[in-house]
Amino acid sequence: MATIDEETNIAGEAGPAVPRVTLRDPVRESEERANQARLKRLTEAFTIFDQEANNTIPSTELGTVVRSLGLVPTEGELQDVLSEMSDDSNPESIHLDRFLSVMNVLLKDRRYQGEPESKILRAFQVLDPDNNGFISEEELRNYLCKEGEPFNDEEFQDFMTIALDDESGGVCTYKEFIQNLVVEDND
Amino acid sequence: MNHPILAQIVPQVAALSDRADKMKMVSKLSTLSIDKSASKIQQAFRKHQARLKLKKQAAWQIHEKLEYSSEQTEAKLKDMFEKLIKASGTLSPSVTKLLHKAGLPVEEKELLRLTNPENIRVEPTYRGPRIEGPITRKVFVDLIEAFQRGQVLHEKYVCEILHQARTILKTIPNFNHVDLSNLRHVFIVGDLHGQLADLLHIFNSNGLPSTDNAYIFNGDFVDRGRNSVEVILLLMVALILYPSSVFLNRGNHEDIMVTVRYGFHNEINHKYRTRKAPLVDLFKDIFSWLPLYSYVDAGKNKIIVMHGGISDKINLKRLNSLARNRYVSIEVPPESKSGGKRLTEEEENEYHQIQDLFWSDPDPRGRRGCRKNDDRKMACFFGADVTQQFLKKYNLSMIIRSHQVKQDGYEYNHGGKVLTVFSASNYCGGSNWGAVVRWDYNEEEPWIISFKTQGVEMEKMSFSKQVTLFEDPAYHSLMEKVMTNKTALLKEFTKADTKKDDHLPLTTWADIMSDVLQVDLPWLILRAKLVQEDADGVLYRSMFNDYILDNPKFQMSNTGIMEDLYMWKDMLLALFNLIDYNHSGFISRNEFADVIKLILYGENGSGDVNDAYVEELTSAMDFDRNGKIDFNEFLESFRIVNVKKPQQINEKSKGRNKSGSINGVIVEHKIRV
After folding, report:
1. How crowded is residue B344: how many other Cβ atoms within 10 Å of its Cβ?
2. Do B56 and B184 fall within a single domain?
3. Which of residues 536 through 565 in chain B touch A, CB cutoff 8 A?
4. B7 contacts B13 by C-beta, under 8 angstroms
5. Domain EF-hand: where (chain B) (predicted)?
6. Do B195 and B47 share a structural domain?
7. What is the rounded CA–CA span in Å between residue B556 and residue B502?
8. What's the pTM value of the predicted model, to 2 decimals?
9. How far apart are CA B601 and CA B571, in angstroms?
């Protein structure tokens, strides 16, 4: 399929228009479209947290925005992303343009992808050496508030609300919990 | 300590596991593994929480934008009236006269006669509260208890209260002067919207209004909630009891054209069937006598409190001296004093000031200056510079206003110079806090008290379940909008589908959604709940698969007409309620045809109307072929039905506070400075 552009002829004179034929490149087109969709998706996620509608978000919200897009950087990795995006003159907030350019690359390169369900299950099993199928609140508190990238009190509370969703009396049957936890990605 | 998994990962460990001196290495390795495992779990959880927050924000946005979008009908109606008054004779004189009536003050003598409490008899079967003798504090408390039990006050006593309140309101100047050197402190309450539980909670925690416990109620007492009548009655009683410490400001919902669409009318119809017309007129009159704003002298600070906001046109001197009861409805311009059809320039200016006072918002994008309010399509967005100039001109420290729902129940703007306070918690099925402001004499800053009144079940629910509950009505409203615009959407979709393969690129689909539905939402984030897609793009037809627009009373198979009627539903409702002034529920075929012409006139902007189309519509509506149209029933029987689950009829959550039970209220309370 071809589209036709009209242009002046090569000598640059304003002579009769010479039609120029451009070939459509379906692969490039679909890449273009994917790019556009990605940018729009990123802008939407950013804008939703942009309370003052001035194309910035507070740096403290970056974690939420990035994770809401399905990426799971560690806290350390998040700091790296933050420093790439923030502006020295205004470190407290992140501007949409910086956000877009950094995130576009991260998404394209498929960085910081999350773990599949099976790996999370394995992680729980490490914490459950006797293979009981469940872990008590006490143990969870020990692990999750002291190891890895510890939860603060609020995070742990929220975690336990979901973890103890079924009336299992103070323990977390992690297999079911994982099903509640793993959210479908549609990007 | 022979950990099976560890042994698989590190075979050497298995070999060494029975050697005590190697135990240290084993435990170190397992600690590493625990560390990594904990990290994985924490990461997965944090991602989950972030996704939830996103969903919640998205639902909130849908909620907000759709609310504005429905309020745009006010602007359309207003424009239509303006056109009507300026144009000449497109409609029959009887309809024109009736529409004019909306903007006219009610004839006082007749009104008082029709609602004279002495002429109203109370049946011996009435078991509700009574008011015998003067209205006292005991009456106030009795009413609160009765309303809490769900009782409805007899119309005799309603008229008693309203007559007395009206007398007082007529004596008040256009603004309330609130002097804290006497009163010591004042509570400022924002939108209540008929949510009795919130009002009662406010009284419970902060004390009933009294001579030394002053209150300002900043408008929007009615509409949307289930107890608009009870809320406004209590405020009126408070005013009667303590006129020097209870102050009422008018809101944009204290307006007959608005209450006709947002529930107050229906509530009166439902609770006071026999005398609904004169009661509606009485409220209409009382609304027009409500003061325009309050001026609070807090010693070191002087604060102005109004419902909506300001603009660059606001002139307090003018506002203080105008005849406020001429503005019966803020949407219909008052009659010109000059006797001509049009308002003079001065009168136009005055009319715009009134609109701005009740409908404006601080600019949501932080821009400077004053510009047309894009969300509501009338009044202004005002910038920080406008606020600054206004405050300076009138020697004020701050503006306190309401009008917009806020997540925390309050919000500061313009560098702390504008404070929004909204007191209806969990508004319209949402999950926002309500707030109340308290200013003490000579204090630099106010106290802000936030609260939520909600059913017990909500509290026990996990965050994700709460989000789902909040999402459902939002998405349902969105689907309604989609379904009513199905024809227009499909037209644009097929036009853009150049390859004719029923697919569209994501961004193209999103742009069309924004354009046709006239609402700017994060479509890509929302798309999973709306439409199917595959590697080739969005399958746009799938958006309409799950729902149908249905009306059991409608026998016509022409879905185009059904969609048009549904799309104009709000306008039709408003116009019909005006025409059917004695609220019989019927209008004649001719009147119906006139109203359709009016709407088409408003849409096309010209006098040309397709007569055949009007005839088709009218015939479709006249079910019994008796020349009368029972429109209320018809309009109310529109619904969006999920065809996958035919038994489950999704109720539109308009006006329904899901957690509105007054008994079993759980309250969360936080105080901030």
Report:
1. 12
2. no
3. 537
4. yes
5. 567-602, 609-644
6. no
7. 29
8. 0.71
9. 13
Our CA-based measurement puts residue A73 at a distance from the nearest CA of chain B, in whole angstroms, of 8
CB contact under 8 A, A53 and B57: no
Task: Please report where in the chains the tokens 């995130």 appear, as a residue.
Answer: A103
CATH number where B620 lies: 1.10.238.10
Residues present in chain A in total = 187
Question: Could you list the residue range(s) of the whole structural domain that residue B401 is in?
Answer: 97-451
Cα–Cα distance for residue pair B457/B261, rounded to 1 Å: 31
Residue B542 resides in a domain? no
CA distance B289 to B432: 31
3-state helix, strand, coil in chain B (%, to 5): 50, 15, 35
DSSP calls for A140-179: HHHHHHHSSS---HHHHHHHHHHHT-S--SSEEEHHHHHH
Q: Do domains A28-109 and A117-181 have the same CATH topology?
A: yes
- CB of A3 within 8 Å of any CB in chain B? no
Each residue's pLDDT tens digit, A36-76: 888 999 999 999 888 777 888 989 899 999 999 888 898 88
ipTM score over 0.95, yes or no: no
In the three-class reduction of DSSP (H, G, I as helix; E, B as strand; rest coil), residue B79 is classed as helix
Greatest Cα pair distance, chain B, in angstroms, is 108
Structure tokens given for B392: 């300076």
- Asked if residues A171 and A144 have their Cβ atoms less than 8 Å apart, the reply is no
Residues of chain B with pLDDT under 70: 1-32, 70, 73, 77, 80-106, 340-341, 455-466, 469-470, 551-561, 577-586, 601-609, 620-625, 627, 629-673
End of a domain among B40, B57, B73?
B73
Q: Distance between CA atoms of B273 and B266, rounded to whole angstroms?
A: 10
What confidence score (pLDDT) does residue B593 get?
75
User: What is the per-residue pLDDT across B216-249, written as a single tens digit (0 to 9) for each?
Assistant: 999 999 999 999 999 999 999 999 999 999 999 9
- Residue A149 to chain B, least CA–CA distance (Å): 6
Report how many domains make up chain B. 3
Nearest to A37 by CA among A107, A99, A112, A113: A107
Give residue B162's pLDDT. Answer: 96
Give yes or no: residues B69 and B102 share one domain: no
User: Which of A32, A39, A44 is most worth mutating to test chain B (most B CB atoms within 10 A of its CB)?
Assistant: A44
pLDDT computed for residue B665 by the predictor: 39
Give strand pairing partners of B436: B189, B449
Cross-chain Cβ contact A49/B506 below 8 Å: no
CATH of the domain at B353: 3.60.21.10
Tally the C-alpha atoms within 13 A of residue B483's C-alpha that lie toward its C-beta: 22
Choose which CATH entry (3.90.980.10, 3.40.50.720, 3.30.70.60, 1.10.238.10) describes domain A117-181: 1.10.238.10
Neighbours of B31 (CB within 10 A): 11
d(CA A131, CA A135): 9
Residue B222 to residues B8, B60, B229, B435, B596, Cα–Cα distance (Å)? 69, 22, 7, 17, 29
- Find the DSSP H helices in B297-441: 316-321, 345-359, 384-393
Q: pLDDT tens-digit profile of B476-509?
A: 788 888 887 888 899 999 999 998 999 999 999 9
Beta bridge partners of B421: B410
**Structural tokens at position B598:** 């009016």
CB A65, CB A78: distance < 8 Å: no
Closest residue in A to B3 (Cα) is A129
Judging by DSSP bridges, how do beta strands B293-297 and B361-362 pair with one another? unpaired
Q: Which fold has domain A28-109?
A: Recoverin; domain 1 (1.10.238)
For testing contact with chain A, the best of B10, B35, B37 (most A CBs within 10 A): B37
- B393 and B295 in one domain? yes
Q: Give the model confidence (pLDDT) of B625-635 as tens digits.
A: 676 766 666 66
Q: Do B440 and B411 contact (CB within 8 A), yes or no?
A: no
Characterise A4 by phi-psi region: left (phi > 0), alpha (psi -120 to 50), beta (else): beta
